[in-house]
Amino acid sequence: MQDVNQISDAIASNLFRVRQSIADAARACTRSSDAIRLIAVSKGHPKEAIAAAMAAGQKDFGESTTQDALPKISQLANPSIDWHFIGHLQTNKARFIPGNFSWLHSLDSLELARKLSRRAAEQSATINILIEVNVSRDPKKHGLTPEALPDFIEKYLKENFPALPLRGLMTIGPHAAPEKEIRACFAGLRRLRDDYQRRFGLKNFTELSMGMSGDYIEAIQEGATMVRVGTAIFGERDYSK
């Protein structure tokens, strides 16, 4: 069994390799790596692993369940860290987001937005919002269809949620698909972002959260501003725990 120092060294080395590959991918498509935010997906990993990543300079972490995330956020309290909620959020868990997470990557209903807005107002908190879009139309995935997106944005803006600024879109690429299909999915999200940024005059609607450990290079090639990488940093999760 690895000791703490070995685990810390491995995570630091993994982070270095991922950052280098992000820089290489950005350079290859004449983008700046500074425009790409690495979200270290820490879901299912212990606080010690997250602390090791923090010690290696990582500032953004992604979690997908409130029950797993909240103890770690509390125990690793650090004002320089941004926590991102990246999983499907049930409306009855909305109360846990304001004050704990700076970003929500998975908004997919106005009911959820209303609950988040009320809770955020109570705590004088702001949550940066990404709308989840099911570009690949996978029935197993959450998110709005591309066709539903313009009506959703229009209604969202009319209801006016000042504590929930719209910052962009998120998608999950098709699983185990050819590169051409993966890139087509990510390019589709980019076009949606560009179209609705112009249509609704949303100057801060700039973010594209797309790409994970297996496809973040393709995501960067298609304009990702956030990549969500877990396994390549922390290794496989222990599902027995």
TrEMBL record:
<protein>
    <recommendedName>
        <fullName>Pyridoxal phosphate homeostasis protein</fullName>
    </recommendedName>
</protein>
<feature type="modified residue" description="N6-(pyridoxal phosphate)lysine">
    <location>
        <position position="43"/>
    </location>
</feature>
<dbReference type="InterPro" id="IPR001608">
    <property type="entry name" value="Ala_racemase_N"/>
</dbReference>
<comment type="function">
    <text>Pyridoxal 5'-phosphate (PLP)-binding protein, which is involved in PLP homeostasis.</text>
</comment>
<feature type="domain" description="Alanine racemase N-terminal">
    <location>
        <begin position="35"/>
        <end position="237"/>
    </location>
</feature>
<comment type="similarity">
    <text>Belongs to the pyridoxal phosphate-binding protein YggS/PROSC family.</text>
</comment>
<dbReference type="InterPro" id="IPR011078">
    <property type="entry name" value="PyrdxlP_homeostasis"/>
</dbReference>
<dbReference type="Pfam" id="PF01168">
    <property type="entry name" value="Ala_racemase_N"/>
</dbReference>
<keyword id="KW-0663">Pyridoxal phosphate</keyword>
<dbReference type="GO" id="GO:0030170">
    <property type="term" value="F:pyridoxal phosphate binding"/>
</dbReference>
<dbReference type="InterPro" id="IPR029066">
    <property type="entry name" value="PLP-binding_barrel"/>
</dbReference>
